[in-house]
């Protein structure tokens, strides 16, 4: 009121206040909703690329540290993969110490990643949210954290499974890698056994010695047929004194005295088996005879139980190979060798076989011979090694580990495995020599190797020649074609794996095409033969009547339990 004017007791009217519109009344809720969406957006960005949420919230120091650490780790891993030899990476993945360190790093990395996601949401979330918004925001942030936790957790579980597999399978002695690979060659006995609830005893129907050159990695497989008779034992050993003329039944029956029966015989007569190198007398006795006949000191053994072989093939996703020009029958042979209608046939040509088909591809004996099965075994080994990628192994490793623990046994120590894997990975070249009736033997009356009466001196000579450094290839201009040797006479044919009861006698197996005593490339032989064959060499689990040779003539009507 101006000075000098009388006070009338009234005040000038104030302008009426504006009433908030409907949009203005909803503004706090809309703001909270918009703030929640932005917070979740920043949280999602931090989930995809850690540190970006902090940078958007102007926490540059923290965000830069998080993002810089991530870039440094990814860059270091990329350089490691690009610059480090594959064999070195493989060696580290077979070391339990390295696996433990990697698992610990994954745990720390996962916890750190999840922590920065949670922190981003805590900084970005709006204040004063309604209860429903709080629940929604917290739930979405937790879901984003879970998307990171799952792959990290799977990686840790995968590494722990690898460690568990190594610890359960490779429990051999404390031999160091330098000691094991310091010798010119490392010899591993590969066995495919038929142990199972429906089997009488354990028979090793697949027997191979993998002789590995510790300098080049060149590997030669020496395949021994299951029907080798009169297996020889080291002179002076209890088994040699028991069987001075080779492993044979004095009564004349050869059914339980083939090479595939040595394992079971050792288990039944442990006093005849060497005391080592394993606690299993059957393995020790079989290892001693194979070592003596080939002249190769056996360093380790690896046994695959055929009862779980099909599961192992399924665990790696099957195997693709060329079945060959003829279909392979599944089943079709009774317990007494009688031919019946097969359950079905595996089609010829290039096929991807599941575990059951791969097993029958190995064991089918209705229309084939033992020696054809041996060839399929070598081809399947080649196929599994060359066709199984690292990605498949990683994605299916849990299943592989679970099956392997129950169906694989070995005395190879963990310390040797990484260096051996590096050696094979860098220079792997698989060759093979099969001691079957197609192998030329100048000391034999037939001109071919006789499984009924094996020439041990000649076997050792073949092995020595095979593992020697290969001679330089001949000059094509000077090389002349060499005529193929004649096929062995029928009296020296391999024992038939099946017989027709109606005929009253078994038909002799035809010998395969003549071969050289020199080692053959498995990859080349499988490709040119047009048939890929399997490693598990298991029979169809039945008894049959065989015609086997004893070195003097056929022994008719031998009853045996097939593997």
Automatic annotation (TrEMBL):
Keywords: Membrane, Transmembrane, Transmembrane helix
Biased amino acid composition, Low complexity: 489-521
InterPro entries: LytR/CpsA/Psr_CW_biosynth, LytR_CpsA_psr
Bias-annotated ranges (Basic and acidic residues): 16-28
Pfam family, one: LytR_cpsA_psr
Domain Cell envelope-related transcriptional attenuator: 203-388
Bias-annotated ranges (Pro residues): 469-488
Taxonomic superkingdom: Bacteria
Ranges for region Disordered: 1-28, 434-454, 466-563
Spans through the membrane: 34-57, 64-83, 89-114, 135-154
Sequence similarity: Belongs to the LytR/CpsA/Psr (LCP) family.
Cross-referenced PANTHER family: POLYISOPRENYL-TEICHOIC ACID--PEPTIDOGLYCAN TEICHOIC ACID TRANSFERASE TAGU
NCBIfam families: lytR_cpsA_psr
Protein name: LCP family protein required for cell wall assembly
Organism (species): Pseudonocardia parietis
């Amino acid at each position: 009121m101006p000075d000098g004017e009388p006070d009338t007791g009234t005040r000038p009217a104030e302008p009426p206040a504006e009433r908030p519109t409907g949009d203005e009344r909803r503004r706090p809720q809309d703001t909270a909703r918009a703030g929640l969406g932005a917070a979740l957006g920043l949280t999602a960005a931090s989930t995809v690329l850690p540190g970006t949420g902090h940078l958007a919230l102007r926490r540059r120091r923290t965000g830069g540290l998080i993002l810089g650490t991530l870039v440094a780790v990814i860059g270091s891993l990329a350089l490691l993969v690009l610059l480090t030899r594959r064999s070195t990476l493989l060696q580290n993945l077979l070391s339990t110490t390295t696996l433990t360190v990697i698992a610990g790093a994954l745990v720390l990395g996962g916890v750190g990643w999840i922590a920065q996601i949670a922190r981003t949401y805590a900084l970005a979330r709006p204040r004063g949210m309604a209860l429903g918004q709080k629940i929604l925001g917290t739930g979405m942030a937790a879901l984003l954290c879970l998307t990171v936790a799952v792959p990290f957790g799977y990686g840790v579980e995968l590494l722990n499974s690898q460690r568990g597999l190594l610890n359960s399978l490779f429990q051999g002695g404390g031999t160091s890698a330098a000691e094991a690979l310091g010798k010119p060659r490392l010899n591993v006995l590969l066995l495919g056994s038929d142990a199972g609830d429906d089997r009488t005893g354990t028979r090793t129907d697949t027997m191979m010695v993998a002789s590995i050159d510790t300098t080049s990695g060149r590997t030669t497989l020496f395949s021994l047929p299951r029907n080798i008779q009169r297996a020889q034992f080291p002179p002076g050993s209890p088994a040699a004194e028991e069987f001075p003329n080779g492993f044979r039944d004095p009564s004349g029956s050869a059914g339980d005295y083939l090479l595939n029966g040595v394992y079971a015989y050792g288990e039944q007569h442990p006093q005849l088996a060497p005391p080592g190198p394993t606690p299993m007398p059957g393995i020790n006795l079989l290892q001693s005879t194979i070592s003596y006949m080939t002249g190769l000191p056996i360093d380790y053994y690896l046994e695959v139980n055929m009862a779980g072989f099909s599961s192992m093939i399924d665990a790696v996703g099957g195997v693709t190979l060329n079945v060959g020009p003829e279909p392979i029958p599944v089943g079709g042979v009774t317990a007494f060798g009688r031919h019946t209608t097969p359950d079905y046939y595996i089609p010829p040509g290039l096929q991807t076989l599941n575990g059951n088909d791969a097993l029958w591809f190995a064991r089918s004996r209705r229309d084939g011979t033992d020696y054809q099965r041996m060839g399929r075994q070598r081809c399947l080994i080649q196929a599994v090694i060359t066709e199984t990628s690292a990605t498949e192994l990683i994605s299916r490793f849990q299943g592989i580990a679970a099956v392997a623990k129950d169906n694989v046994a070995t005395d190879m120590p963990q310390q040797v495995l990484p260096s051996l894997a590096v050696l094979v990975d860098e220079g792997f070249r698989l060759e093979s020599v099969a001691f079957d009736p197609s192998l030329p033997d100048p000391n034999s009356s037939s001109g071919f190797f006789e499984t009924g009466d094996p020439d041990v001196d000649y076997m050792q000579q073949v092995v020595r020649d095979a593992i020697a450094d290969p001679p330089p290839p001949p000059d094509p201009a000077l090389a002349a074609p060499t005529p193929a040797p004649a096929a062995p006479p029928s009296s020296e044919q391999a024992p038939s794996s099946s017989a027709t009861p109606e005929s009253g006698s078994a038909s002799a197996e035809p010998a395969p095409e003549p071969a050289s005593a020199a080692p053959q490339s498995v990859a080349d032989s499988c490709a040119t033969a047009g048939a890929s064959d399997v490693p598990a060499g298991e029979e169809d689990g039945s008894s049959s009547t065989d015609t086997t040779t004893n070195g003097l003539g056929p022994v008719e009507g031998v009853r045996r339990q097939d593997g």
